[in-house]
Amino acid sequence: MAQPQKPIKPPIGPATQLCMSLAARPGRFGSRFQNRLYEHLGLDYVYKAFTTTDLAAAIGGIRALGIRGCAISMPFKEAVIPLLDRLEGSAVAIDSVNTIVNNEGRLTGYNTDYSAILEVLAQAGVSPETAFLLRGSGGMAKAVAAALRDRGHRKGTVVARNETSGRSLAETYGFSWAADAEGLSAPLLINATPLGMAGTDADRLAFPEALIAGSEIVFDVVALPVETPLMQAAQRLSRQRISGADVIVLQALEQFVLYTGIRPDADTVAAAAAFARSA
């Protein structure tokens, strides 16, 4: 029996839908993941990563040029909100946006980080009874804190040097705040800062090694590189690990669905994720 033919992606032309990302440090994963899915499914889309020093102009360009969708990364997840027309429920709850969808010039903000974090915590078997330390107070930390609260976690501390944003995040979601992790401990450690990310913070450890040794589960939201200093230390100390690589696939998949209205099967997603990580 003849095998069904793979759909052929149309050549780029006037009808091609452009999707993009905005980040302080543009990465390759999103572009490779999205474009691989477009190619596999024969979709007339193309995806490109950008950075900007003029966020308002960049968002105006999305509207003016009919760009279909845009992934938003640090440090723009909160600053972008006043530039949008409306927020979907997840973005409202977290007051943070990681995805913009353009429907005929009307820009809607979403947050797919939240659902991805819920899923990876469930997949890892993390009990809602588990106490935690969450380092960070930015957009990703908000998504993590909201997911933890909504899973039923009640014992946790937000660790953030910025007292204003740290206290605000902790109080919003019913947790404690501390300026640093000295004297603290918890079974679950979560890094939601850029520490360990490729670039100037690549060699920095998000938690002291002694604190990692006293934990049970270590979750680093940083996705690139996969093996951050925190993940390496957790491996060395035989702690259970949850990688940001798992989060990035799940949130990128939800972005793809929002942009295209199509949900690929699990094998197609896995293949695209493997391709995106291969470079």
CATH-derived architecture of the largest domain: 3-Layer(aba) Sandwich
Distance between the termini: 36 Å
Number of helices: 10
Looking at how many chains there are and whether they match, the oligomeric state comes to single chain
Order of helix and strand elements from N to C terminus: EHEHEEHEEHEHEHEEHEHEHH
Q: Helical proportion? A: 25-40%
Provide the gyration radius in Å. Answer: 19 Å
| Backbone shape | globular
What's the average pLDDT?
Answer: 94
Q: Widest sheet: strand order? A: 2-1-3-5-6-4
Number of domains: 2
The CATH fourth-level homologous superfamily of the largest domain: NAD(P)-binding Rossmann-like Domain
Structure description:
With about 280 residues, the protein is of the alpha/beta class. It has two domains: about 15-110 and about 245-275, 3-Layer(aba) Sandwich (Rossmann fold), CATH 3.40.50; about 115-245, NAD(P)-binding Rossmann-like Domain (Rossmann fold), CATH 3.40.50.720. About 40% of the residues lie in helices and about 20% in strands. Strand 7 (about 130-135), helix 5 and strand 8 form a beta-alpha-beta unit. Helix 4 (about 110-125) crosses helix 9. The longest helix has 17 residues, at about 245-260.
